[in-house]
Automatic annotation (TrEMBL):
Transmembrane segments: none annotated. InterPro entries: Erg8, GHMP_kinase_N_dom, Phosphomevalonate_kinase, Ribosomal_Su5_D2-typ_SF, Ribsml_uS5_D2-typ_fold_subgr. GO terms for biological process: farnesyl diphosphate biosynthetic process, mevalonate pathway; isopentenyl diphosphate biosynthetic process, mevalonate pathway; steroid biosynthetic process. This is phosphomevalonate kinase. GO terms for cellular component: peroxisome. Its EC number is 2.7.4.2. Residues 180-253 form the GHMP kinase N-terminal domain. NCBIfam families: Pmev_kin_ERG8. The lineage of its organism: Eukaryota, Viridiplantae, Streptophyta, Embryophyta, Tracheophyta. The keyword Repressor does not apply. Keywords: ATP-binding, Kinase, Lipid biosynthesis, Lipid metabolism, Nucleotide-binding, Steroid biosynthesis, Steroid metabolism, Transferase.
């Protein structure tokens, strides 16, 4: 009866800061880095005395963090109460569990509620696993004396144990922190848990989804329920209503995104202790969710690369706070900068969409131009345009580069005005160097920027040369690529698949 669901991490390519306010759009790419949630019954059968109990047992296990927490779930109030815990609690998973079960109560008739009650009395055994790409293993690689290459990352066992930073710079103990890579682990984790539970409890059926269903051209009601519950759980767990692009991409995959109005979550935010959770979830399920999402993915023969410079992380909430203070103190200047950024984002989106259409119209010509340009620096790309159809492709490639340079300029300008390092000087040097390499279309800082990571979009087979160059610049190229899929139901425990793959590789080598 085990259900395994997975949800992807994300890269916000355009729309940093702007996506916080409607109607500004952001382009968000989902990735091959996925979070998994495994849900199964804790007990094989219901004990006779269990019928009188008003509580169900819930076990949450995170093997990578060596954590296990036992809860009692009130079947009346649908609230979790920790009984024993090896470490600190996980509010994202706790809210995901409570809200998913409340969604079942809010939507089921009496007969289904009876079945749900029996299912819950068998307990819930929940395991969460995140791909290595969500976490920084740079220190471990350097400690082992290995080179800063994707091959070194690939040599780590799947779902490697996560290292905690247990002390701050002056040696005082503080709450342990995990070194992350900025792919949105909490959103992917929350979405995976919600999806697995909703499927396990029979609220949704995620068995067979096509690409059309991810993007609303066919019935996507099951995904929409996953989205509403995951957004609600994630926002309440983090204590604020964010833009939601990370959860949306975790559910639906790569997309052009415009945020929902925060008011849709007012009932969840304002709910008091006396408000039944089923009423809260019923309200958010019936609310008018007005977010917009449009199918988007990189054009063919383009590769997303992410690099970890190793210069420390950045606090997104504090950077967002600084930008908001700047907007209040200088509304006229900030409005003009945002207008320019919005224009740049729209221009980049237009050029990439046009390249997708040109590839559909004549793939052979498109492939020829992309492969030729992958061997050259951008200033030499026009040399490969010997006829109008080729010139049209090169024009769009150069237009996309120009738009990206404009976006970077205004992001730096905004950072300087707000007093924060949105594109720090060290990142500027790295990005300029990257964009001057053969076959590189774009380079930038994803999301809110700072010191977390850099991204590049490369043409053809040029990505290998970029990762080598990054390694020489002390930048670790991550094992992350675009994967446009959203939340998915998996066949089995991902650890079993990894073990099978490893055994197969060993057999092939021998």
């Amino acid at each position: 009866m085990a259900v395994v669901a997975s949800a992807p991490g994300k890269v916000l390519m355009t729309g940093g800061y702007l996506v916080l306010e409607r109607p500004n759009a952001g382009i968000v790419l989902s990735t091959n880095a996925r979070f998994y949630a495994i849900v199964k019954p804790l007990y094989e059968e219901i004990k006779p005395e269990s019928w009188a109990w008003a509580w169900a047992d819930v076990k949450l296990t995170s093997p990578q963090m060596a954590r296990e927490t036992m809860y009692k779930l009130s079947l009346k109030h649908l609230k979790l109460q920790a009984v024993s815990s090896s470490e600190s609690r996980n509010p994202f998973v706790e809210h995901a569990v409570e809200y998913a079960i409340a969604a079942a109560h809010a939507t089921f008739d009496k007969d289904k509620k009876d079945i749900l009650h029996k299912l819950l009395l068998r307990g819930l055994d929940i395991t969460i696993l995140g791909c290595n790409e969500f976490y920084s293993y740079r220190n471990q690689i350097e400690a082992r004396g290995l080179p800063l290459t994707p091959e070194s990352l690939a040599s780590l066992p799947p779902f490697t144990s996560i290292t905690f930073n247990a002390k701050d710079s002056i040696g005082e103990n503080r709450k342990p922190e995990v070194a992350k890579t900025g792919l949105g682990s909490s959103a992917a984790m929350t979405t995976a848990v919600v999806a697995a539970l909703l499927h396990y409890l029979g609220v949704v059926n995620l068995s067979s989804f096509t690409e059309d269903q991810y993007h609303g051209r066919k019935d996507a009601s099951n995904l929409d329920i996953v989205h509403v519950i995951a957004q609600t759980a994630h926002c309440i767990a983090q204590g604020k209503v964010g833009s939601g692009f990370d959860v949306s991409s975790a559910v639906y995959g790569s997309q052009r995104y415009v945020r929902f109005s925060p008011e849709v979550l007012s009932s969840a935010q304002n709910a008091g202790m006396a408000t039944p959770l089923t009423e809260v979830i019923d309200d958010v399920l019936k609310a008018k969710w007005d977010h917009e999402r449009t199918k988007f993915s990189l054009p063919p023969l383009m590769t997303l690369l992410l690099g970890e410079p190793g210069s420390g992380g950045s606090s997104t909430p504090s950077m967002v706070g600084a930008v908001k203070r700047w907007q209040k103190s200088d509304p006229q200047s900030s409005l003009e900068t945002w207008r320019k950024l919005s224009e740049g984002n729209s221009a980049l989106e237009m050029h990439l969409n046009t390249l997708c259409k040109l590839a559909e119209r004549n793939y052979n010509v498109y492939e020829c131009v992309i492969n030729a340009c992958s061997l050259l620096t951008a200033e030499k790309w026009p040399e490969r345009a010997n006829e109008p159809s080729q010139a049209e492709i090169v024009k769009e490639l150069l237009g996309a580069r120009e738009a990206m340079l404009g976006i970077r300029y205004y992001m730096r300008k905004m950072g300087e005005a707000a007093g924060i390092p949105i594109e720090p000087e060290s990142q500027t040097h790295l990005l300029d160097t990257t964009m001057s390499m053969e076959g590189v279309l774009l380079a930038g800082v994803p999301g809110a920027g700072g010191f977390d990571a850099v991204f590049a979009v490369t043409l053809g087979a040029s990505s290998k040369n970029v990762t080598k160059a990054w390694s020489s610049l002390n930048v670790l190229a991550m094992l992350v690529t675009e994967d446009p899929r959203g939340v998915s139901l998996e066949d089995n425990d991902p650890r079993a698949k990894e073990i099978t793959a490893a055994v197969s590789a060993i057999q092939l080598q021998s």
